[in-house]
Protein backbone atom coordinates (compact mmCIF):
# COMPACT_ATOMS: atom_id res chain seq x y z
CA UNK A 1 0.00 0.00 0.00
CA UNK A 2 1.23 3.46 -0.86
CA UNK A 3 1.85 5.80 2.04
CA UNK A 4 0.69 9.40 2.18
CA UNK A 5 4.30 10.53 1.90
CA UNK A 6 4.88 8.39 -1.22
CA UNK A 7 1.68 9.70 -2.76
CA UNK A 8 2.75 13.27 -2.04
CA UNK A 9 6.09 12.60 -3.76
CA UNK A 10 4.39 11.11 -6.85
CA UNK A 11 2.05 14.08 -7.11
CA UNK A 12 4.86 16.58 -6.55
CA UNK A 13 6.94 14.98 -9.33
CA UNK A 14 3.98 15.03 -11.71
CA UNK A 15 3.10 18.67 -11.00
CA UNK A 16 6.76 19.72 -11.25
CA UNK A 17 7.08 18.00 -14.64
CA UNK A 18 3.80 19.50 -15.85
CA UNK A 19 4.93 22.99 -14.85
CA UNK A 20 8.39 22.49 -16.37
CA UNK A 21 7.03 21.30 -19.73
CA UNK A 22 4.59 24.21 -19.96
CA UNK A 23 7.27 26.74 -18.98
CA UNK A 24 9.73 25.42 -21.58
CA UNK A 25 7.00 25.43 -24.22
CA UNK A 26 5.82 29.00 -23.58
CA UNK A 27 9.37 30.34 -23.23
CA UNK A 28 10.08 28.97 -26.70
CA UNK A 29 6.75 29.64 -28.45
CA UNK A 30 5.21 32.79 -26.95
CA UNK A 31 6.18 35.08 -29.83
CA UNK A 32 4.90 32.65 -32.47
CA UNK A 33 1.69 32.13 -30.49
CA UNK A 34 1.16 35.90 -30.55
CA UNK A 35 1.78 35.92 -34.32
CA UNK A 36 -0.73 33.09 -34.79
CA UNK A 37 -3.31 34.91 -32.67
CA UNK A 38 -2.87 38.08 -34.71
CA UNK A 39 -3.42 36.12 -37.93
CA UNK A 40 -6.44 34.40 -36.40
CA UNK A 41 -7.93 37.73 -35.29
CA UNK A 42 -7.50 39.11 -38.82
CA UNK A 43 -9.33 36.09 -40.22
CA UNK A 44 -12.15 36.34 -37.68
CA UNK A 45 -12.42 40.08 -38.44
CA UNK A 46 -12.95 39.16 -42.12
CA UNK A 47 -15.72 36.66 -41.24
CA UNK A 48 -13.45 33.61 -41.10
CA UNK A 49 -14.38 30.54 -39.09
CA UNK A 50 -12.21 28.17 -37.07
CA UNK A 51 -12.48 24.45 -37.79
CA UNK A 52 -11.05 22.13 -35.14
CA UNK A 53 -10.30 18.40 -35.15
CA UNK A 54 -8.39 15.73 -33.27
CA UNK A 55 -8.16 11.99 -32.72
CA UNK A 56 -8.74 10.00 -29.55
CA UNK A 57 -9.17 12.15 -26.50
CA UNK A 58 -8.01 15.11 -28.58
CA UNK A 59 -11.48 15.08 -30.15
CA UNK A 60 -12.81 16.57 -26.93
CA UNK A 61 -10.09 19.23 -26.95
CA UNK A 62 -11.11 20.15 -30.48
CA UNK A 63 -14.72 20.40 -29.33
CA UNK A 64 -13.68 22.45 -26.29
CA UNK A 65 -11.84 25.02 -28.43
CA UNK A 66 -14.73 25.38 -30.88
CA UNK A 67 -17.29 25.90 -28.12
CA UNK A 68 -15.10 28.48 -26.35
CA UNK A 69 -15.09 30.65 -29.46
CA UNK A 70 -18.84 30.17 -30.05
CA UNK A 71 -19.84 30.60 -26.40
CA UNK A 72 -17.30 32.94 -24.80
CA UNK A 73 -16.21 31.96 -21.31
CA UNK A 74 -15.25 35.55 -20.57
CA UNK A 75 -18.16 37.98 -20.21
CA UNK A 76 -18.04 40.67 -22.86
CA UNK A 77 -16.00 38.71 -25.40
CA UNK A 78 -17.54 38.44 -28.83
CA UNK A 79 -18.89 35.06 -29.94
CA UNK A 80 -16.93 33.82 -32.96
CA UNK A 81 -17.72 31.04 -35.43
CA UNK A 82 -16.10 27.77 -34.42
CA UNK A 83 -16.92 24.30 -35.70
CA UNK A 84 -15.47 21.01 -34.50
CA UNK A 85 -15.28 18.42 -37.25
CA UNK A 86 -14.81 15.91 -34.42
CA UNK A 87 -18.52 16.33 -33.60
CA UNK A 88 -19.67 15.13 -37.01
CA UNK A 89 -20.40 11.42 -36.59
CA UNK A 90 -21.22 10.91 -40.27
CA UNK A 91 -17.89 12.43 -41.25
CA UNK A 92 -15.95 10.47 -38.64
CA UNK A 93 -17.50 7.10 -39.41
CA UNK A 94 -18.52 7.40 -43.06
CA UNK A 95 -15.23 8.19 -44.78
CA UNK A 96 -11.70 6.87 -45.06
CA UNK A 97 -10.28 7.42 -41.56
CA UNK A 98 -7.09 9.00 -42.89
CA UNK A 99 -8.94 11.54 -45.06
CA UNK A 100 -12.13 12.27 -43.10
CA UNK A 101 -11.14 15.70 -41.80
CA UNK A 102 -9.46 16.73 -45.06
CA UNK A 103 -12.64 15.77 -46.89
CA UNK A 104 -14.75 17.77 -44.42
CA UNK A 105 -12.59 20.87 -44.86
CA UNK A 106 -12.62 20.55 -48.64
CA UNK A 107 -16.44 20.45 -48.68
CA UNK A 108 -17.27 22.88 -45.88
CA UNK A 109 -14.45 25.37 -45.29
CA UNK A 110 -13.47 28.37 -47.37
CA UNK A 111 -10.32 30.40 -47.95
CA UNK A 112 -9.94 32.78 -45.03
CA UNK A 113 -11.05 30.19 -42.48
CA UNK A 114 -8.72 28.59 -39.94
CA UNK A 115 -7.91 24.95 -39.20
CA UNK A 116 -6.63 23.80 -35.80
CA UNK A 117 -5.56 20.17 -35.53
CA UNK A 118 -4.54 18.27 -32.40
CA UNK A 119 -2.25 15.22 -32.48
CA UNK A 120 -0.39 13.21 -29.88
CA UNK A 121 2.85 13.20 -31.87
CA UNK A 122 2.26 15.05 -35.14
CA UNK A 123 2.16 11.78 -37.07
CA UNK A 124 -1.61 11.16 -37.10
CA UNK A 125 -2.54 10.72 -40.79
CA UNK A 126 -6.02 12.24 -40.54
CA UNK A 127 -4.67 15.37 -38.86
CA UNK A 128 -1.65 15.71 -41.17
CA UNK A 129 -3.87 15.31 -44.25
CA UNK A 130 -6.41 17.84 -42.97
CA UNK A 131 -3.77 20.46 -42.19
CA UNK A 132 -2.22 20.02 -45.63
CA UNK A 133 -5.67 20.35 -47.21
CA UNK A 134 -6.28 23.51 -45.17
CA UNK A 135 -3.13 25.11 -46.56
CA UNK A 136 -4.12 24.16 -50.10
CA UNK A 137 -7.52 25.78 -49.55
CA UNK A 138 -5.95 29.06 -48.39
CA UNK A 139 -6.87 28.56 -44.77
CA UNK A 140 -4.65 29.53 -41.84
CA UNK A 141 -3.47 26.20 -40.44
CA UNK A 142 -2.27 25.45 -36.91
CA UNK A 143 -1.05 22.10 -35.61
CA UNK A 144 -0.60 21.25 -31.93
CA UNK A 145 1.23 18.06 -31.00
CA UNK A 146 3.68 16.36 -28.72
CA UNK A 147 7.06 14.98 -29.75
CA UNK A 148 8.33 14.36 -32.36
CA UNK A 149 5.87 16.84 -33.89
CA UNK A 150 4.52 17.68 -37.32
CA UNK A 151 6.74 18.07 -40.34
CA UNK A 152 7.32 21.81 -40.76
CA UNK A 153 5.55 21.84 -44.14
CA UNK A 154 2.24 20.58 -42.73
CA UNK A 155 0.87 23.84 -41.30
CA UNK A 156 1.46 27.58 -41.11
CA UNK A 157 2.02 27.36 -37.37
CA UNK A 158 3.23 24.20 -35.67
CA UNK A 159 3.46 24.04 -31.90
CA UNK A 160 5.16 20.98 -30.43
CA UNK A 161 5.14 20.16 -26.73
CA UNK A 162 8.46 18.53 -25.86
CA UNK A 163 6.99 15.39 -24.30
CA UNK A 164 5.70 11.97 -25.24
CA UNK A 165 3.39 11.74 -22.21
CA UNK A 166 -0.11 12.26 -23.65
CA UNK A 167 -1.47 13.69 -20.40
CA UNK A 168 1.25 16.32 -20.12
CA UNK A 169 0.91 17.13 -23.82
CA UNK A 170 -2.83 17.56 -23.44
CA UNK A 171 -2.44 19.83 -20.40
CA UNK A 172 -0.14 22.14 -22.35
CA UNK A 173 -2.47 22.06 -25.36
CA UNK A 174 -5.31 23.20 -23.12
CA UNK A 175 -3.21 26.12 -21.91
CA UNK A 176 -2.32 27.01 -25.50
CA UNK A 177 -5.99 26.85 -26.50
CA UNK A 178 -6.95 29.26 -23.74
CA UNK A 179 -4.14 31.64 -24.69
CA UNK A 180 -5.25 31.51 -28.35
CA UNK A 181 -8.81 32.31 -27.32
CA UNK A 182 -7.88 35.19 -25.02
CA UNK A 183 -5.22 36.79 -27.22
CA UNK A 184 -7.41 36.63 -30.34
CA UNK A 185 -9.97 38.69 -28.43
CA UNK A 186 -7.30 41.17 -27.33
CA UNK A 187 -6.40 41.74 -30.99
CA UNK A 188 -10.07 41.98 -32.00
CA UNK A 189 -10.52 44.78 -29.47
CA UNK A 190 -7.81 46.72 -31.33
CA UNK A 191 -9.64 46.89 -34.65
CA UNK A 192 -7.22 49.47 -36.07
CA UNK A 193 -4.52 46.75 -36.08
CA UNK A 194 -6.60 44.40 -38.20
TrEMBL record:
One protein family per Pfam: SIS_2
- Organism lineage: Bacteria, Bacillati, Bacillota, Clostridia, Eubacteriales
Q: Name one GO molecular function term.
A: carbohydrate derivative binding
According to its UniProt entry, one GO biological process term is: carbohydrate derivative metabolic process
InterPro entries reported for this sequence: GmhA/DiaA, SIS_dom, SIS_dom_sf, SIS_GmhA/DiaA_subfam
Gene3D superfamilies associated with the record = Glucose-6-phosphate isomerase like protein, domain 1 (3.40.50.10490)
Protein name, as recorded: Phosphoheptose isomerase
Give all residue intervals belonging to the SIS domain: 40-193
Instruction: Give the keywords, sorted.
Output: Isomerase
